[in-house]
Amino acid sequence: MANLSTTYMGLNLPSPIIAASSGLTNDIKNLIELEACGAGAIVLKSLFEEEIILELDRRLHKMHSENYLYPETYDYYEEHDVDDTLTEYLRLIYDAKKHLQIPVIASINCVTAHNWPYFTKYLQEAGADAIELNISIFPANFDASLGQNENTTLEIIQAVLKEATIPVSIKISPYFSNLAQSIIEFSKSGIKGMALFNRFFSPDYDTDTLEIIPAPIFSQPGEFTLPLRWIAITSGKVECDLVATTGISDGNTVAKMILAGAKGVQVASTVYKNGINQIQIMNNDLKQWMDSKEFADIESFRGLLGYAKTGNPAGLIRTQFMKHFAGK
Ligand SMILES: Cc1cc2nc3c(=O)[nH]c(=O)nc-3n(C[C@H](O)[C@H](O)[C@H](O)COP(=O)(O)O)c2cc1C
Fold first, then answer.
1. Is residue 327 part of a domain?
2. Closest ligand 1 atom, CA of 269?
3. pTM more than 0.85
4. pLDDT value of position 49
5. Which residues pair with 211 in a beta bridge?
6. How many domains would you assign to the chain?
7. Domain membership of residue 16 as a residue range
8. Which of 21, 38, 40, 185 could make an S-S bridge to 107, C-beta 3.0–4.6 Å?
9. Is residue 72, in this structure, part of any structural domain at all?
10. Using a 6 Å CB cutoff, which residues line ligand 1?
11. Which residue stretches of the chain have pLDDT < 50?
């Protein structure tokens, strides 16, 4: 019987299927069920840099209205508020570590390296096995210069690495210039892992009401081709582990990501849509496929169809449809 165990960032995982950061990983009951259904690791719901700032603003406004704002009280309340937000999160890490055997990865959603990286030490003291930085720089700032978002990403990584003694990974969007080179540079920065790619909340239009509405929040299975391509292109060159996220909904797609060179995958939408037990189904399907191909473990097929091994990247980097594929 095929062995599904793998490693990610030096951590031992019983399965390559990781529960991605989402509302599902914000609750200890779900975490216990995710482990029971065979998740290889958990990425907790992100603590948002933005969320903390909003909370601070709310308290500051309250202090203004109560007429007792002095520099000293501001400092006190600033610390107090940060601690409040943090305490809840630290409790989640602590509880998760108490109840689970699999690695627990804390997550911070961030866009700058200002004021928050010291949080890192609290996350590791609470017991987190690693930290994932969900770097969510939205690339639509017309005032930003070319390369600025890549530099900010590297600044965030360096600021966190100064504090961290546990492995640090990043989760990025595909919106960087010269994506392959950006991924390689990020991988050399001292991080141990990288998740490709986060999926931004997107807008849609309602043509009846002529309003902007949210696009579906869950991914569609066909979206897996985006991370597949970039993992295949970069897996032989990066200096950290890669995991795939977006559009992975069945065991067969997990096999594809590992063939491309990923150490594992992170899943959210399929678990929302099909229930936590979907992870067990995916593990079983992956095992069956490995048995049918006589792959005893993950490393025996990891990267087999990546750019580095195939030596023929045409299928991976082609961007134009040929007549044959375009349906004439
Ligand atoms: C409802 C919902 C909440 C999410 N919250 C977070 C979050 O807090 N932090 C994060 O890094 N990613 C978050 N994600 C993104 C997922 O972790 C995942 O990377 C993305 O949905 C793509 O994977 P999927 O196709 O399996 O859903 C969220 C996704 C969903 C659907």
1. no
2. 27
3. yes
4. 86
5. 206
6. 1
7. 6-317
8. 21
9. yes
10. 20-23, 45-46, 107, 109, 134, 171, 198-199, 217-219, 245-248, 266-270
11. 68-78
